[in-house]
TrEMBL record:
It comes from Aquila chrysaetos chrysaetos. This is SEC22 homolog C, vesicle trafficking protein. It is a multi-pass membrane protein. InterPro entries: Longin-like_dom_sf (IPR011012), Longin_dom (IPR010908), SEC22a-c_C (IPR059071), Sec22a/c (IPR043546). Keywords: Endoplasmic reticulum, ER-Golgi transport, Membrane, Protein transport, Transmembrane, Transmembrane helix, Transport. GO terms for biological process: endoplasmic reticulum to Golgi vesicle-mediated transport; protein transport. It is found in: Endoplasmic reticulum membrane. May be involved in vesicle transport between the ER and the Golgi complex. Residues 8-119 form the Longin domain. Pfam families: Longin, SEC22a_C.
Length: 304
């Protein structure tokens, strides 16, 4: 879909954010593109006033004037002229709202939370409007781009990659991992946590007792000791995955579940069928709770 996804205002000389945004997408391409935007914002002083960093699905456009720059993430098929029309409109709105002279001299961080309302309004207008509805501004920007075409970058450029790894001029401007918020813990989820802790404790106690006996008398029982300790660790990690967000949750959940199943099957003889069924049942409930507890649709706080 051809549209503008994200926009912000930054200070040119150091990439300091001068606006906050409620725009957030859990799409991995967008998160990666936003990292590149943060890295690019810290080195804007190296480039001309207009520029475009193109990627396969998303592109970054920036427009600077004095010490202020407006930046946007758009879909790659979004019109470059429309993107710069949007950035010029945003720049004008920002200049009308704030004293840009004092900003250029400022040494402390700014967080213009209220300006996000303006960004959202202008972004919505441009996402819904066609080029014919802004013909005058379109022709003006088109003429300017002919005489002063924007510098062309690629999102995979070495400079942008270095900006991410080195943190640009100031590491605080590089967004590494967003703060993810999970949905509320349910009563069934609390039950799964309690049962998981109980199963983990049983595995640990049996494993410790068996380890004392195995190291003293039966050295061939080391496999059984490992088969008790592995489910204990699996229970701990299942509790963690339920409470906190982690990448590749599905893969980790299935690996932990199958580990519990295999270890309990291996322990047949030391445990009866009812005990094995109980441990596997608790692991199944925990896995289901992990997979059904999703991220919140939108972050409650505004991210700068």
């Amino acid at each position: 879909m051809s549209m503008i996804f994200f926009a912000c205002v930054v200070r040119v000389r150091d990439g300091l954010p001068l606006s906050a945004s409620t725009d957030f997408h859990f799409n991995q391409d967008f998160l990666e593109c936003r990292k590149r935007l943060k890295a690019l914002s810290s080195i804007l002083a190296q480039y001309p006033s207009r520029g475009t960093a193109k990627g396969r699905d998303l592109s970054i456009h920036f427009l600077s004037s004095g010490d202020i720059a407006c930046m946007a993430i758009c879909s790659s098929n979004y019109s470059t002229i429309m993107a710069f029309c949007f950035l010029e409109e945003l720049q004008w709105e920002f200049a009308a709202s704030y004293d840009t002279t004092s900003i250029s001299l400022a040494s402390r961080p700014y967080a213009f939370l209220e300006f996000d309302n303006v960004i959202q309004k202008v972004k919505c207008h441009f996402n819904c409007a066609s080029g014919s509805q802004m013909k005058a501004n379109w022709e003006k920007i088109e003429e300017e781009l002919k005489f002063r075409p924007p510098v062309q970058l690629k999102l995979e450029d070495t400079e942008l990659m270095n900006g991410i790894t080195n943190g640009g001029h100031a590491g605080v401007h590089v967004e590494v991992v967003p703060t993810y918020r999970m949905q509320r813990v349910t009563p069934l989820g609390i039950l799964s946590l309690v049962l998981n802790i109980m199963c983990g404790a049983l595995n640990l106690i049996r494993g410790v007792h068996l380890a004392e006996y195995s190291f003293q008398e039966d050295h061939e029982g080391i496999g059984n000791v490992i088969a008790f300790f592995l489910p204990f660790l699996a229970c701990v990690f299942q509790c963690y995955l339920y409470l906190f967000y982690s990448s590749a949750r599905k893969v980790k959940t299935f690996v932990l579940f199958f580990s519990v199943c295999l270890c309990n099957i291996y322990l047949y003889g030391l445990r009866n069928l009812w005990q094995i069924a109980f441990h596997i049942g608790v692991a199944s409930l925990s896995s289901y709770q992990i997979l059904t507890r999703q991220l919140m649709e939108k972050q409650p706080d505004c991210g700068v």
